[in-house]
Amino acid sequence: MSSSVECTGLHDAGARYGVLVGASWVYGKTMARGWGRSEEDLGAEKEHAREAADKSAARPSSDHAREAARRRSLELSLKRIEDLLSKTESPDRRSALEAAKAELRERLGESEPSH
Q: Of 23, 64, 87, 115, which has the maximum CB count within 10 A?
């Protein structure tokens, strides 16, 4: 028994086919035609895939993103310390904040992008 589609004859509505369903042939069902995609759809899909590839190539790597987040965190900490220094009058507290500020600037210098 062949699993290919066999033509059983012509009818007013068009050709009728026998289709193997499971272990039995089913006859008399008209097959749908034109189920494929149009050239416009295929072109649009290719363009969409190309745009998605371009976007993913333009995204920074996870290492780059992690370093940018680390740098941003250091910059925010430095800004906070500078704000606290402008409000603090205690010499001991100012000394501790100055030491923290120097450490943060050193760390920021280490994370400078090298070109």
A: 64
How crowded is residue 8: how many other Cβ atoms within 10 Å of its Cβ? 13
Average pLDDT over residues 76-101: 95
> How crowded is the C-beta side of 57, counted as CA atoms within 13 Å?
6
- If we measure between CA atoms, which residue out of 106, 100, 70, 109 comes closest to residue 82? 100
Tokens of 38: 């149009």
- What strands lie across the sheet with 14-21, from one edge to the other? 6-11, 14-21, 24-29
Alpha carbon dihedral 101, 102, 107, 108, in 10-degree steps, equals: 70
| Concatenated DSSP letters of 59-93 | SPPHHHHHHHHHHHHHHHHHHHHHHHHHH---HHH
Encode pLDDT of 73-86 as tens digits.
999 999 999 999 99
